[in-house]
Amino acid sequence: MPTYIVLLGPPGAGKGTQAQIVSKTLGLPHISSGDIFRENLKNQTSLGVQAKGYMDRGELVPDDLTISMIRDRLSRPDCASGALLDGFPRTVEQAKALAGMLEGFHGAVNAVPYIKVAEQVLIERLTGRWTCRAQGHVFHEMHNPPKLAGVCDHDGSELYQREDDKAETVINRITVYFAQTAPLIEFYQRGGQLLEIDGTQPIDRVTADLLAALAKKV
Ligand code: AMP
Question: How far is the CA of 31 from the centre of ligand 1 (A)?
Answer without folding.
Answer: 12
